[in-house]
Amino acid sequence: MLGVDVVIVVTGGSGFIGAHLCERLLDDGYGVRVVDIVPPKSGTKAEFARVSVLDAARLTKILSGAEGVVHLAALIDVSASVSDPFSDFSVNAAGTMNVLEAARHAGVKKLAFASSAAVYGEPVRLPVDEEHPTAPLSPYGAAKLAAERYVLLYNSLYGMENTALRLFNVYGEGQNASSPYSGVITKFANAISEGSRPMIFGDGEQTRDFVHVDDVCDAFVRAIEGQGCSSPLNIASGVETSVRELLETMCGICGADFSPTYMPERKGEIARSVADIKLARKRIGYAPRMALSQGLRELLEAKGGARSIFRPKK
Ligand SMILES: NC(=O)c1ccc[n+]([C@@H]2O[C@H](COP(=O)([O-])OP(=O)(O)OC[C@H]3O[C@@H](n4cnc5c(N)ncnc54)[C@H](O)[C@@H]3O)[C@@H](O)[C@H]2O)c1
């Protein structure tokens, strides 16, 4: 039986995934300590320490006595990583080293790390499994790749039981429309609710693997409760969805007309993405449960004033 005396530290716990994960951990009976540079939403029962992952000295103290760490804190803006690669490196690579060292010195055995599909770059074959070559296209992807290597190296060097989860396009309530991952879903929802025409860049045939935030939280809980894994693990839905299909589904749910404005294709975007998730199933029992249509429906319903989005079918 878990008690609040079993504490999990969540770095980046005030962010999109972090906020959902903290509530899931609290529901499961854990004590939760958030390490972030911004406070979590009011009303949470999680403890909060306003500490940067760049502050190595304070991290060790905060991690003392914890059972495990979920390390989500990061700069997630891929284009910002291109204009300012050093800041990205500092937080995403060196910051991860700080968290790892703090865990090692504090005697915390388990760390689950949020890596990214960005480590793969443009897929050369689909679905992308964990053996797929890594060829990041941005400093963000390079820093995530370096960081996950350190995370897993600590298993063999220091007897930790760490896990690196390569997240694909996570979506769900509370995501910022500017997110490079699934901000498109929030943007489409906003456009539909405002009655404006959603924008599709390119022909809309580019594909992504959208995974619901609840399934991602489940993967992190499994990772932190498991015994670690020497290979990184893909966390995705395993379903390939084009941006055009995505918008059609959202319009279908709301009874809105499908009438996007097509804009020129954006440079640097990969054409297709879908993950092979068999290894995560095998190693941590990960099995995504939220179908995209259901996740989108819940998201649209939860959106502020969302019911006004729904129009009767003609
Ligand atoms: N959202 C996705 O689809 C997706 C996909 C792949 C990987 N990831 C990874 O998952 C993690 C969480 O992503 P998210 O979408 O919730 O992002 P987010 O931006 O909502 O959350 C990141 C959090 O990290 C915090 N943070 C930033 N710099 C910090 C610092 N120096 N010290 C402490 N905290 C700091 C931010 O304040 C924020 O609360 C990130 O590591 C991201 O790279 C996300």
Oligomer: single chain
The separation of the N and C termini measures 53 Å
Overall domain count: 2
Count the E strands: 13
Low-confidence stretches: none
User: Percent helix among the residues?
Assistant: 25-40%
Give a description of the structure.
The chain has ten helices and 13 strands. The protein is α/β, with parallel strands linked by helices. The chain has two domains: 7-168 and 213-235, NAD(P)-binding Rossmann-like Domain (Rossmann fold, 3-Layer(aba) Sandwich), CATH 3.40.50.720; 171-208 and 239-275 and 289-309, UDP-galactose 4-epimerase, domain 1 (Alpha-Beta Complex). The protein has a seven-stranded parallel beta sheet, sandwiched between helices. A two-stranded parallel ribbon has the order 7-10. It has a two-stranded parallel ribbon with strand order 8-13. Helix 5 (139-158) links the parallel strand 5 (110-116) and strand 6. Helix 4 (85-106) runs parallel beside helix 5. Bound molecules: nicotinamide-adenine-dinucleotide. Nicotinamide-adenine-dinucleotide (NAD) is lined by residues 11-12, 14-18, 35-38, 52-54, 72-76, 91, 95, 114, 116, 167, 169-170, 179, 181-182.
Summarize the structure.
By secondary structure, the protein is of the alpha/beta class. It contains 10 helices and 13 strands. α2 runs parallel beside α4 (about 85-105), α6 runs parallel beside α8 and α8 (about 245-255) crosses α10 (about 290-300).
What are the salient characteristics of this protein?
314 residues, alpha/beta, Rossmann fold, UDP-galactose 4-epimerase, domain 1, 7-stranded parallel beta sheet, two-stranded parallel ribbon, binds nicotinamide-adenine-dinucleotide
